[in-house]
Amino acid sequence: MPKPPRIFVLHVSLHGIKTVWRRIAVPASVRLSALHRVIQGVMGWHDMHLHEFTARNGERFGVPEHDDFEPPQDESIHKLDEFLSRPRDKLRYTYDFGDSWEHVIELKLATEYSKRPMRAEFIDGAGKCPPEDCGGVPGYYEMLKAIHDPRHPEHRQFVDWLPNGTYDPDDFNPALAEVILRSIRV
Predict the structure, then answer these.
(1) Number of domains in the chain
(2) H-helix or E-strand containing 1?
């Protein structure tokens, strides 16, 4: 008798910014290429930069044709359950090699599910994703200081750069995350 399908409940956190995290459920057999799209959607990124996954042993997985020097293994042929199997197992996901947004993907729960097809599901989360191209974790914190201090030397630059001239780090919209995940095939 075949093993019943499993789902993984994952906690995705943004390294260096403790207030930004998401909890999602995905099929254990999701390909890393689909997990990339899920993370992009649920975090609020716009998929404008390169990315890769890094396993505990240092192996890298991504889109090989984008890296001529040391290409990563092809993420489209590897599944999540090759890297995570027990709670507290972790996988790293890096987005935008310039800003170097490091995400920690931690398995919280592995469980069986019914035979119906499983889509990625949003469970919980907090914190708005930082704006693209703000300079990584140090740039993000500098941006927050600058937009809240009219005397900061970069205040006007950031206010002009941000959509609507402002950014609220607590303005995470769970309903939008749910809608986005419903549109992603896994």
Answers:
(1) 2
(2) none
Instruction: Give the global pTM.
Output: 0.92
Clarify whether residues 161 and 108 are in a common domain. no
87 and 152 together in one domain:
no
Please check whether residue 109 is in contact with residue 9, taking contact to mean a CB–CB distance below 8 angstroms: yes
1 is a domain residue: no
Q: List the beta strands (DSSP E) in the chain.
A: 6-14, 21-27, 51-54, 60-62, 73-74, 90-95, 101-112, 121-126
pLDDT tens-digit readout, 15-28: 999 999 999 999 99
**Residue written as tokens 């027990």?**
86
Q: How many percent of the chain have pLDDT more than 70?
A: 94
In the DSSP assignment, the letter for residue 114 is -
Work out the number of other CB atoms within 10 angstroms of the CB of residue 166.
Answer: 11
| 158 and 105 belong to one structural domain | no
Which has the closest alpha carbon to 129: 108, 104, 101? 101
109 and 163 housed in the same domain: no
Output the average pLDDT for the chain: 92
The neighbouring-strand residues paired with 51 are 95
List helix spans (H) across the chain: 32-43, 136-147, 155-161, 174-182
